[in-house]
Specification:
single chain; alpha+beta; elongated; binds zinc ion
C-alpha cells in the first residue's frame, strides 16, 4: 500500500510531498526536508508523532465509471 505525506497535511504552507510504501522511509524523508527547509519547526518527539499520524494512504487510482452504465441495451 502506497502511503503519502505532504507538508500541507501538517498545516505547513509548502507544496512538498512524498510517497512511499514504507512509513519509515517517508519519515526519514520528511525529517530531512523539515530540517533543511523548515528550520523553524522543531522535530520534537511530539511533532514526530504528529507527522507520523498524518501519513495517509495515497489515493488509489479510480476506476472509470462507465457513462453507459444506465443504458441497458
Ligand atoms: Zn515543506
Amino acid at each position: 500500500m502506497t502511503k503519502s505525506f505532504s507538508c500541507k497535511d501538517v498545516g505547513i504552507d509548502c507544496t512538498w510531498s512524498t510517497t512511499h510504501e514504507s512509513e519509515e522511509a517517508i519519515m526519514s524523508m520528511a525529517k530531512e526536508h523539515v530540517s533543511l527547509v523548515h528550520k523553524e519547526i522543531e522535530l520534537s518527539p511530539e511533532n514526530y508523532c504528529k507527522f507520523k499520524s498524518l501519513i495517509r494512504e495515497a489515493d488509489k487510482p479510480r476506476k472509470r465509471v462507465s457513462k453507459d452504465s444506465k443504458k441497458v441495451a
